[in-house]
């Protein structure tokens, strides 16, 4: 299988605009010295794993599935919500705590559980 490559999009696909809401606001904050210059700003970041929940239960612990992170921002020229960057990852199947309230060594407690 061919491994997908991370990709960046410099322009809005709808109008070709190159200025984006969060990126532009972030640059202003960086110029004021209130944000590290190496940080990137996006309107929204979505992460996911491509999986079939009915099959995951039969997969061995440590199996990997393809995952992704999609970075979105809003074009200041036309208002289009644009994908600015896609990163591909591998998500490892981990053991999840099956009984709320019981702590398995090495597995962090879920928030709100004792
Ligand atoms: Zn646009």
Distance between the termini: 43 Å
Structural class designation: alpha+beta
Low-confidence stretches: none
* Shape verdict: elongated
Count of extended strands: 4
What's the average pLDDT?
87
Question: Major beta sheet, specifics?
Answer: 4 strands, antiparallel
Number of helices: 2
Strand content: 25-35%
Strand/helix succession = EHEHEE
Our count of domains comes out at 1
Helix content: 10-25%
- Each distinct ligand: zinc ion
For the largest sheet, list the strands in their spatial order: 1-4-3-2
Outline of the structure:
Helix content is 13%, strand content 27%.
Account of the protein in words:
- There is one protein chain.
- The protein is an alpha+beta fold and 114 residues long.
- It has one domain (7-92).
- The protein has 2 helices and 4 strands, in the order βαβαββ.
- The model has no long low-confidence stretch (mean pLDDT 87).
- Bound molecules: zinc ion (ZN).
- The site of zinc ion has 8 residues, from loops.
List its traits:
114 residues; alpha+beta; four-stranded antiparallel sheet; 4 strands; binds zinc ion
How are the SSEs ordered, and which strands pair?
Blueprint (H helix, E strand, L loop, with lengths): L6 E2 L12 H11 L12 E6 L3 H4 L7 E11 L6 E12 L22
Antiparallel strand pairs: 1-4, 2-3, 3-4
Bound molecules: zinc ion (ZN).
The site of zinc ion has 8 residues, from loops.
